[in-house]
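User: quick one, fold this
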Amino acid sequence: MALFGLFSKEKKETLDKGLEKTKDSFFSKLGRAVVGKSTVDEEVLDELEEVLITSDVGVETTVKIIRRIEARVARDKFLGTEELDRILREEIAGLLSEIKSPTDTADRDDFSLPADKRPYVIMVVGVNGVGKTTTIGKLAAQFHKKGYKVILGAGDTFRAAAVEQLKLWGSRVGVPVIDHGMNTDPSAVAFDAVKKAVEMQADVVIIDTAGRLHTKVNLMNELTKIKRVVQKFLPEAPHEVLLVLDGSTGQNAFIQATEFTKATEVTALAITKLDGTAKGGVVIGISDQFRIPVKYIGVGERIDDLQTFNKMEFVDSFFKK
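Assistant:
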């Protein structure tokens, strides 16, 4: 049974199915770690540490979880291995609950936007191949379905495929796409997209950005320029910088998060492709390590398989047997 019951039955079933590979892999490892053991002792904790690390939770977060469980073992004196699932569930839920931000959607399962910011400007960043443009298209579809007026900005002008893909999404969803074609100034695209959004009294503008520039300095300069140019027209923009990460890449997603958080101020995360991987533990580790809330997760190919991230529902699906 879901912890908060906020998701629709269909969304919860999709989330359960999307995390099946991660869950099956994790619990098979956990089962091997505690076989023949009746109490949570030092040896079990060592095995658990390896299970968490190999499940792509990350070293820092794993150490934090282990220390919390050690404290519980010391306090309660005797903890049986049959209680380990419950303890892990509680500690992981506790870790995720500590991460808060103005863009956090942990208490709802819809795609609502702040009522006091119009147009709401989202700048989307991430390397090529993580599903960035697809995520933008699915976001546009979800916002459009809720009745919001949406505009897209094709700011990844270094890849013709990115511009064309975004235009296809715009046509499919029924929302306008501002583009200047290939090898044009991304910041000019962003400026025109925001300008158009203001003129049309749009609710949200989503700006795609270059997925790969030659150096981190180039990336930082480009993202900074986009922000600066957009702020000339709308001083408080962008309201959100959304980093898209491919969950199936495991530890490589940590590296990408490190690079992008150095290059710009990331305020929210979208983690894609969780349905095709056993590396869903990366959601826990990245969220905890970078103290940036996961706002969206991709658990399938359909438009509706991009879901707002509900921490407790995620933990519930992760530990559901």
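User: anything notable?
Assistant: The mean pLDDT is 86.
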